[in-house]
Amino acid sequence: KLERILREHELVADVAVVGRADPVHTEEVVACIVLKNPSMDHTGVAVQLKAYCRQHLAPYEVPSKIEILDKIPKSPLGKVLKKELRVAPKPTPAVQVAPAAQLMPAMKEVA
Asked: If 15 and its partner were Cys, which of 6, 8, 27, 59 is the partner (CB 3.0–4.6 Å)?
């Protein structure tokens, strides 16, 4: 369902959703996104996509992370290689959006 919702967004060219090991919550949901226009601001797009998910999904269905990638790894037959996506990506191609709860203390310090 999450992949379908994200695929409907006008900025998304391709998407894959995986579960990735998390030391606190056992596993976290990560949406790996390829943009139609790769030159867009990745941080802004990730925030926009997370808000879009909140509008169309139940709170527990919203991914904990959205990562912007250059391409989704696929087999020669075109099948998504989710095993490769489950491994934490290199810092360069991905953007992660912090949950709002983590941003709030920083916002209070600025004010």
From this structure: 6
